Amino acid sequence: MSQLDDVGEADGWRCWLCDEPVDQSMSVNDPRGPSLDTRMTKAKSKAKGALPPRLAHRGCNTGKGATVRPVPWPEDLFLVDPSPIIASVDRLERKGGREVMARCVDRADADAAAAWLLDRISRLQPNLAVTTEIEFGGGQFLLILRT
């Protein structure tokens, strides 16, 4: 079995960038075909320690290039000031603690966003143990990520 197959199986054949299914039978040269994203943060590139490869569509992977592409939040949730997920996860991995990830107008959106965020982070950084908290304050619900 190839590394692409191993990573694809581990990631459930879903692109970690866009969260859409990846067809393993498509050509690796097709924009919707499978590819490995060996994303690397600035801190980890200095330490020469790459993060584990993730499955991505060829087009998603090529589109991000050498920059850290933002992981998009779901469009069906009403979020105010959502934090960039990759940067927040990198900070939590290095320093621990907590980060406010978004403000939500109602509890239902906060609960849905919390469940979605835990799922995304479990695929983005499987070895990082995080929990979500929702706190009410200032007429809004704060979605908090804690290590």
Sheet having the most strands: 4 strands, antiparallel
Number of strands: 6
Strand and helix order: HEHEHEHEHEE
Q: What count of domains describes the coordinates?
A: 2
Q: Poorly predicted ranges (pLDDT <50, ≥5 residues)?
A: none
End-to-end gap: 34 Å
Q: If helices are DSSP runs of H or I spanning 4 or more residues, what is the number of helices? A: 5
Rg over CA atoms, rounded to whole Å, is 16 Å
Structure description:
There is one protein chain. With 147 residues, the protein is an alpha+beta fold. The chain folds into two domains: 3-64, no CATH class; 79-146, no CATH class. 33% of the residues lie in helices and 21% in strands. The chain has helices at residues 3-10, 42-46, 58-64, 85-95, 107-124; strands at 34-37, 54-57, 79-80, 98-104, 131-137, 140-146. The strands form two sheets. A four-stranded antiparallel sheet has the order 3-4-6-5, with helices on one face. Strands 1-2 form a two-stranded antiparallel ribbon. Strand 5 (131-137) and strand 6 form a beta hairpin.
List the keywords.
alpha+beta, four-stranded antiparallel beta sheet
Indicate the topology.
Elements: H1 3-10, E1 34-37, H2 42-46, E2 54-57, H3 58-64, E3 79-80, H4 85-95, E4 98-104, H5 107-124, E5 131-137, E6 140-146
